[in-house]
Design goal:
By secondary structure, the protein is mainly beta. Helices cover 15% and strands 39% of the residues. It has helices spanning 2-35, 281-284, 331-337, 339-343, and strands spanning 37-43, 46-53, 57-62, 68-74, 101-107, 122-128, 131-136, 144-152, 159-167, 173-183, 188-192, 218-220, 231-233, 237-241, 248-252, 258-263, 266-271, 287-291, 296-300, 305-307, 312-322. The protein has a ten-stranded antiparallel sheet with strand order 6-7-8-9-21-17-16-11-14-13, with no helix packed on it. Strands 5, 10, 12, 15, 18, 19 and 20 form a seven-stranded antiparallel sheet that branches. It has a four-stranded antiparallel sheet with strand order 1-2-3-4. The model is unreliable at 1-32 (pLDDT under 50).
């Protein structure tokens, strides 16, 4: 009897421990599950939109046109993307609409498939917790199917955005995936530059042929002007300020993996890769930036590929938001206020 009683008590203790472990495991799983919220909402005139959020950030993609990620913001923060108020809530237009937000284009730029209409509905699919796939109708005129996968981290603001182009035509297509983020006005863009090196003739160290060659590529558009005061060409950073002036644009072979945009204390960081030895559009650019009186565009580009029928190509970006980042007036300010966030 005492042995049975002890076994019963031991069993109770084991059951209690098991309950704690199961409860802890269930709590973590539930917490992870609850960290992601997916809602169908109305947004600024559009009836059908999908909102993906956690406790720190939210992202909204409209399903009435696109694919467009129209809003990305910290909780209690402002949308970092530009919105064209006169184009919100509308669909079915007969010409291309910028609308704002983040979009997927096809490079190199031309007046045909680049500006193919995206004014119709978008389907979405939950792939896994925190991961959504946005699929518009196929562009049968040019034989391309676009898709955007959006993966939100369970905590923090980081978002992984996979841009996908599939050749659904019957002929090969030469193209480059071209994701474009249209940023809200009033901010300043930060583009890091490669580390400086001494002239090979001024050092006694071992030298290689690479030491004598260029390590940076810059491509200028006809409306760029070196006297434009919005540009600052520093030793370690290139910055571009958005204001009420007209268009300017620069392209780079950007190998450092990130660019930023600071606006009203919120820092938006875009991360992407450069594939050495691969051909890129526009004279070798994997990053281009454009601004005018309305907004600033941060544009990454994938390598140029000859996409066979049935084949697909992807371009991946990672985004992150940081709050309460102080403004800066020089490169020392960037090193103090911006660079530590990037290092995380």
């Amino acid at each position: 009897m005492p042995r049975t009683h002890l076994s019963f008590r031991a069993a109770l203790r084991l059951a209690a421990v098991a309950a704690l472990l199961i409860g802890s495991s269930s709590g973590s799983a539930q917490e992870g599950k609850d960290a992601f919220r997916v809602d169908r909402i109305e947004y600024k005139g559009w009836k059908n939109n999908i909102r993906l959020s956690n406790d720190e950030v939210e992202l909204i993609a409209t399903l009435d046109v696109g694919p467009r990620i129209i809003s990305y913001r910290l909780k209690d923060g402002k949308n970092v993307f530009k919105e064209y108020a006169d184009q919100l809530g509308k669909s079915g237009e007969k010409d291309w609409q910028i609308r704002g937000g983040h979009r997927l284009w096809i490079g190199p730029e031309d007046l045909t498939r680049t500006y193919a209409l995206d004014n119709g509905p978008v389907q979405f699919k939950k792939i896994e917790p925190g991961l959504l796939r946005l699929t518009p109708g196929a562009d049968t005129a040019y034989g391309i199917q676009k898709e955007i996968d959006v993966k939100l981290s369970p905590r923090g603001s980081r978002v992984r955005v996979v841009h996908r182009l599939t050749n659904i035509g019957d002929k090969p297509a030469r193209l480059s995936p071209w994701p474009i983020s249209v940023m809200a006005p009033g901010g300043i863009e930060i583009i890091p530059l490669p580390a400086k090196k001494s002239h090979p003739g001024s050092t006694k160290n071992a030298r290689t042929p690479e030491d004598f060659g260029p390590n940076q590529t810059m491509v200028l558009w006809p409306y760029f002007d070196f006297k434009d005061p919005r540009w600052t060409f520093g030793s370690h950073y290139l910055t571009l300020r958005q204001d009420k002036r007209g268009p300017t644009k620069v392209g780079l072979a950007h190998r450092l993996g990130w660019v930023g945009y600071l606006n009203g204390g919120t820092l938006f960081v875009k991360r992407f890769h450069y594939e050495k030895g691969k051909p890129y559009p526009d004279g070798g650019c994997n990053f281009e930036t454009f601004t005018n009186e309305d907004m600033l565009e941060m544009e990454s580009l994938g390598p140029l590929v000859r996409l066979a029928p049935g084949a697909k190509v992807e371009m991946i970006e990672e985004w992150e938001l940081f709050k309460e980042v102080p403004a800066f007036t020089d490169e020392a300010g960037i090193e103090k206020n911006v660079r530590p966030r990037i290092a995380r």
